[in-house]
Amino acid sequence: MIKKLTSAVRNILTAAALLLAVTTTVMAQEKDVITEAAKTSANQMKSQLTLNDNQYTQVVEVNKYYLKRVKDCKASAESTQAKAKKMQAINEERDTKLKSVLTVTQYKKYAAVRAENVKKLKEAANI
């Protein structure tokens, strides 16, 4: 049970680290940083998934909301396990929102790319 929980925590934290990797700017301009990170991620998704303009706009909004929640979660004084559970819920909520924005084909491709990125991060971290 502890191994499963530890594994889940690692998976969630590596996914969050991947998505937050673009937010290395100073926190003084938090809102701008989150907006820019959301746009950067959406730009990558636009090229990978061939998003139309409406989808792109919606994905930017989903990403901004997600990144704000991740930042708040990381800054909280909760235990690592509580943060991991919260991060899992945040990731699931983001996936649900993206599923409603993307076509079935686009979502499958998104999920495959995300899984590959998590795999690469685990290999790099020797997990």
Task: State the gist of this model.
This protein has one domain (2-124).
What does this structure look like?
By secondary structure, this protein is an all-alpha fold. It has one domain. The protein contains five helices and no strands. The chain has helices at 2-20, 30-49, 53-75, 80-101, 104-124.
Count of individual helical segments: 5
Radius of gyration from the alpha-carbon trace, in angstroms: 15 Å
Work out the count of structural domains.
Answer: 1
Total strand count, please?
A: 0
What are the secondary-structure elements, in order, as H or E? HHHHH
Biggest sheet architecture = none
- Helical residues, percent: over 70%
Structural class from helices and strands? mainly alpha
Unreliable segments of 5+ consecutive residues: 22-26
List keywords for this structure.
single chain; 127 residues; mainly alpha; 83% helix; globular; signal
Please write out the topology:
Layout: H1 2-20, H2 30-49, H3 53-75, H4 80-101, H5 104-124
Helix pairs in contact: 1-4, 1-5, 2-3, 3-4
